[in-house]
Amino acid sequence: MAQLIDGKQLSAQVLREVAAEVELLSAEHDVVPTLAVVLVGEDPASQVYVRNKVKRAEEVGMRSIAHRLDAECTQDALNELIGVLNDDSQVHGILVQLPLPSHLNEDDVIAAIDPAKDVDGFHPLNVGALASGRASLVPCTPQGCMIMLRQVHPDLSGKNAVVVGRSNIVGKPMAALLLQENCTVTIAHSRTKNIESVSRNADIVVAAAGRAKLINADWIGPGATVIDVGINAISVDGKRKLMGDVDFESVAPIAGAITPVPGGVGPMTIACLLLNTTRAAKRQLA
Ligand code: NAD
Q1: Is the peptide bond prior to 142 cis by the omega test (within 30 degrees of 0)?
Q2: Does residue 189 register a pLDDT over 80?
Q3: pTM
């Protein structure tokens, strides 16, 4: 049976390190790292995510401010708020909860965020920095996956890694980080041919397709490390259940190590957001 990579435990460790940094910043520089979270509209999942981020930030001693805008808010109003937060020296990190209502342009909003405060790492300048191996603010979910992977593989050099999914927020930055650690990286996606055999040859499989239980035993080679990024809300017997992209029951007996859902990548993402906020605050000291 595969070793379980426990995201709850590992994220608690990261959060303890963040809390220590927050204390140091406060004691030595009189700075309380502050995260501004912007939520547009009433999407229930986004509301839960924002609530969790604010709560965790406060638990590690940060300040966190949630800005809630109406679902009908205009692009100008949203960009204006971003401008105010950019100019506020008391705010070190800005996060706009995605997805936005369809009349708003996500790329425009992301581009409006000061790259030094872009704790999601989605600004084009930060994306470029990551691609050229010089990133300071790395997208939170892939960053969390890397911490999990290092638990099993302190040296990732030469490993065959397959990332399933090519989104800007997970798949592509994940591939960039693995490449930086000298993995041989394949990005598989909805048009990949023979995807199961591509995946079966990997030492590491990162599943980020957003398809519940897509990845079963046929996709995984013996002893592979499997990181399940997927969070899919499925209704089972009338109850809402969260499911990963990996069919845990069929994959766990074959894999060498595996992350659960829930309690895997999810908690690591929030921990890395707070790690990024502390980093951003430190860089803004000068
Ligand atoms: P997305 O929809 O933007 O991208 C999905 C990608 O998967 C696409 O590139 C697509 O080509 C690929 N894909 C879709 N169906 C496929 C198939 N059958 N075979 C192979 N590839 C396929 O999604 P995203 O934003 O990258 O998120 C992916 C999943 O990760 C979602 O379930 C999302 O909820 C979850 N997620 C979790 C966290 C976390 O903190 N754990 C953070 C972000 C996203």
Answers
A1: no
A2: yes
A3: 0.97
